[in-house]
User: Fold these one by one.
Assistant:
Number 1:
Amino acid sequence: MEDSEFHKFFVDELKDIYWAEKHLSKALPKMKKAATSPELAAAFDKHAVETESHIDTLEQIFSLLDEKAVAKKCDAMAGLLEEANGIIEETEEGTMIRDAGLILAAQKVEHYEIATYGTLKVFAENMGHTDVADLLSQTLENEKATDVALTEIAEGFVNQDAAAE
């Protein structure tokens, strides 16, 4: 299976999400600093720690597959992070509008990650990489939980406060 085109494609996509996670880990502290509400800042801080564990998990997956952990530029994540920077630049500091925008940007990232990890998990299962699929499943569940937490912050007060500004 390691010589198949599907396996090579799978590894290439792992390299893509590896790049994405590494760059997200650099972007989250900036997003935390830009956040207005302590709740959103704490969510970004928590996800920064989780993102480091996702990087470690991907390195473990590369090892299980006897592959070198190499990052390949992820154009999708690069664009999403560029968009997040644009939101920071285009919104006023200290506003809930900025927080609403940051949540939007973060949820776009989460949805990209959810789609990627979900698909990679199924790929791993189809190639008989049960151990890899289990690790990808854990990361997938963590990404889903982050998305739910962001929704709770948005619906809890950020969106309503932003609308009132």
Note: The mean pLDDT is 97.
Number 2:
Amino acid sequence: MKYSKIIIVVTLLLFQLGAAQEKADVIINKAFTEAKAGKKNVLLIFHASWCKWCKMMEKNMDLPETKPIFDKRFVTAYIDVQERGDKKKS
């Protein structure tokens, strides 16, 4: 859990603007609550709908060989960053 605390601090520093801060807090708190209940770690992913590396990461995390590993060990939380207009992922 030492790394979990570091992730929280870094995340909070990155989101110092009103709505983004509140949304990030809700997502992170929900992920940590779920992770604690399931004795898992939190995998925090900063995501953007236009990011090809983000899409590649998601695709690889959903492969039949890797999905069970991520599901067993992590609660994955996505925070959208640098979105513009209607590109925002729902």
Note: The longest strand covers residues 41-47.
Number 3:
Amino acid sequence: MRYVTYMKTDFCDLLLAGDESSLTEVSFAGREMKSFTAGRREEETEEETPVLARARRQLEEYFAGERKAFELPLSARGTPFQKRVWDELLKIPYGETITYGELAARIGNPKAGRAVGMANHHNPISIIVPCHRVIGARGKLVGYGGGLDLKERLLAFEKGNRGN
């Protein structure tokens, strides 16, 4: 069973999804996004489970500038390569950025910058798995499922709250 709930923030509207024991998706509600559940025949209900309620609280704390790291059971569906990239994203400190090339090097494949970019594009747990902290080689903001304006706002927000 897949459980979903929605939350509004000053930054964006989010869809939170999970199963009985873990968070499986945080995506931008109302955006044209590729569904992370495409092709799966899973029953879905709009219900806030304890895991989704915990994710909501932690996201509210994040957007209030009170939380810099999340403590949630995550279960992202993806290829082994994507999961390696997503695991490495979790290691990028709050308020800091790295380039796609740096991320590729961190997973042991320095020539895989484009593949890392595609893995970021398919990250099903936005914000919590912080793909917004990855930027282009010359510091340029590139690619983000929530839009570049949101990516810029999230990065500025985090940099402004690093000392708190």
Note: The radius of gyration is 15 Å.
Number 4:
Amino acid sequence: MTEILREIGTIARALDSISNIEFKEYDLTKGQYLYLVRICEQPGIIQEKLAELLKVDRTTAARAIQKLELQGFIEKRDDPDNKKIKRLFATEQGMATYPVIKRENDHSNRVALEGLSSTEATQLLQLLQRVRSNVEKDWEWVKKGNKRSY
């Protein structure tokens, strides 16, 4: 049983490493592509929601967002109803880069699921979603300053 999370971690690190290498030519490093994809797919998302979606702390998200903004991939806009809220949008440069990231993601999915039937792939997705849901409960608990009991 303990090998399952190790396998998931190994897969995640390998895919992240591949993406970081392949997106280097676009000046996207250290997982910035993850932020750009979510902003392209959810125009107007706020920073806090993006951090929650990616399961990172606010400081990590703020650094990545700031870098993407400086590089011209995204822009912040005032919320029309609440000037304190900044909404995130992809620029033309960000939108032009999105299909490249999407293509790489689709390829990685095909490679990762090679040899699995569509039923097996669906079952794997459902099981991983349940695992994610379980982990999210702990993530929320610890994020609020609590400690898990082992």
Note: The mean pLDDT is 93.
